[in-house]
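Appendix B, example 12.
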Amino acid sequence: MSFGAFGWIGRVVLCIIAGMVMSTPIGAAPPGLNPCTLVTTAEVEQVISKLKGAPRGETLADAKSCTYEFANGQDEFEIWIGPGDAFARMRKDAKKPVPVGGFGEEAFMDRGRLDLGSLELTMRKGAVLAQLSIREGAGDEAKLRSLAQKAVGRM
């Protein structure tokens, strides 16, 4: 799967999050929160690999995303944020949610929810839902946990 395909995957997941958010009568995620500031580029490079450039942010309805493109064209990482009240629906729609501790009030990992070869960690901290996604592969859970620990501290 190329990075271009993952960007497409990211847009699909972003649409799903936005759809869940719009169908739930709640407020938006805090407007000042930027998913591209939840982890630094240096942290992403240390955990995954060298970036090709600066991360790209995108907004759709009440959800925001940040996409990281890597120099090797193989690695993938994205972060989405939205209103925390969408968390219950995200867990309900998960393929095989596995609860994880230490990431806000609630968190779970889900592998291959869209059968697209990714591992997602979805967490809620107060009024914010965040989902971090990485390509499945060796050490994917450890990498995702490391970046999620940085992100939850900045939410």
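The chain has a mean pLDDT of 82. The helical segments are 3-22, 41-47, 87-93, 140-154.
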